[in-house]
Amino acid sequence: MDLGADLRAELVRAVAATIERHAEELTTLDQAIGDGDHGLNMKRGFEAVLADVANLSAKPWPDFLKGVGTMLVMKVGGASGPLYGTLFMGLGKDLPAEPTRADLVRAFRGAITAVQARGKSERGQKTMLDVLIPVAEKLEAGVVDTGAITVAAHAAADATIPVKAVRGRASFLGDRSIGHMDPGARSSALMIESVAKVLEKA
Ligand code: ADP
Ligand code: MG
Asked: Ion ligand 2 — residues with CB under 5 Å?
């Protein structure tokens, strides 16, 4: 097993543990402005990824990420399943087998563009993109401090609270979506935090 496989397995374990730990919170957020399934959806998805961690992490980065994305599409469901699936599959599609930091930043932006195309969505509509896009901008600006990335991700999720939802189920509520954090923005920030923590030690 090469170092890459260890790191990939650790990333899966870290993200799955974070989602498990916060599943109830994500569900509560989705109860306020959606249908209350986001925590359960994400938990189901990452439990499936975790169950297949040995097989997935043995694959090189592009196939690993595509495998994770495919699993999320199959298992998460809802709107977030296809969208997070697209994110991870997009990362895998754009990444060389031995990625540099620059490759990673480029692939992250490409994957976000794919999510936008799939969701017909953009920044400012109270979705996961409101976290993913500012994080991509930080990375593109050359920020390497994982702590700063984590802070930016959580600040971006917090910033969805006063926003009116324009996409997803929450948009059905119109002005009543104002005053609640977007569940997908929260799950994105949590995933970014756990990835950052693992990469910091790598
Ligand atoms: P569902 O809304 O089908 O119940 P989830 O509850 O699992 O699915 O996920 C909801 C999250 O998905 C939202 O909080 C939002 O962040 C994200 N989302 C929904 N629609 C879109 C979209 N068109 N573009 C980007 N993100 C979206
Ligand atoms: Mg939901």
From this structure: 30, 34-35, 37-38
Q: Binning pLDDT at 50, 70 and 90, where does residue 104 land?
A: very high
User: How many other β-carbons are positioned within 10 Å of the β-carbon of residue 78?
Assistant: 20
Residue 1: is its pLDDT beyond 60?
Answer: no
Which domains are assigned to the chain? 5-201 (1.25.40.340)
Tell me the C-alpha to C-alpha distance, in Å, between residue 202 and each of 7, 98, 195, 196, 198.
Answer: 7, 15, 11, 10, 6
Is pLDDT at 2 greater than 80 in this prediction? Answer: no
Q: pTM value?
A: 0.97
Residues flanking ligand 1, CB < 6 Å: 30, 34-35, 37-38, 41, 78-80, 83, 119-121, 127-129, 167-169, 182-185
Q: How far is the CA of 19 from the centre of ligand 2 (A)?
A: 15
